[in-house]
Amino acid sequence: MARKAAGKPPEEILLDWKREQASLKARVVDRDTEAWQRDPAFSGLQRVGGVDVSFVKDDSGSACASLVVLSYPELEVLYEDCRMVTLTAPYVSGFLAFRELPFLVDAVQQLRQREPRLMPQVLFVDGNGVLHHRGFGVACHLGVLTDLPCIGVAKKLLQVDGLENNALHKEKIQLLKAGGDSFPLMGGSGTVLGRALRSHDHSTKPLYVSVGHKISLEAAVRLTHSCCKFRIPEPVRQADIRSRDYIRRTQEVQGVPAPPSGRSKEAQRPKACPQGVSEEPAENQNSEEQRPETRML
DNA sequence: GCGACAG
DNA sequence: ATCTTGTCGC
Asked: Nearest protein residue to B4's C1' (by CA)?
């Protein structure tokens, strides 16, 4: 029904993408720009957002993009937007943004237009920020295109610029004893690209936090820890849970036998939700043509 | 041929 | 990302 995004892009496309990244990279602000970011208790921070994209098992072209907004510090879901999308680009390490970002940018723009009061003051992104092959990961990309503070949170270390998940690295992880403990990730050039963070007391595997846009690494790490009820920061975790649940419900409606779901009780209803799941695809789902490239001026 | 490989 | 059951612990 929706096949695309297969194979690896031609070298010419990759060069275009690299030029795009190099160009937008100049706009990244890797320091605190908001008052709440320097406040010890983050007072003034009221809404944190999270984005994620989940995939349909046997269809490399279909996915669900989600944007959620949570209250801070309560971390209760205030807004949820899940939408089925058709992926154009394949996954290529180092170019994640060109696969997932167009839909997330659209979601942010829709929120900005329809519910500006719910706009998050910071966005947690599933993936890296400046901890990237060319210093411009998906979190930076989303930050620059939306002008929102963004934090990159990766579940695995991207082995770039000399960083390696080797014995020494694992030793450092062993030294992280309590939630909030972290150590710097130094690139070959001597620059700190991010920090490995033990997100809470009962989590052994660290998170790799890096600056996306308009926030310092120190504030990003501190806020990430502050948003972790479990290993994954609640905004991203909720976006993940809800996008996967949306796919599951969509599959059911279309007659696909329900897989032995372990849990889906986590998704309670938010105060605001653009649309629900209906068998009839929303009429205006494609009213706006899909952009092949990620732009927004 | 071998190792790497965010999601 | 997704494929997957039980299991150990609070």
From this structure: A159
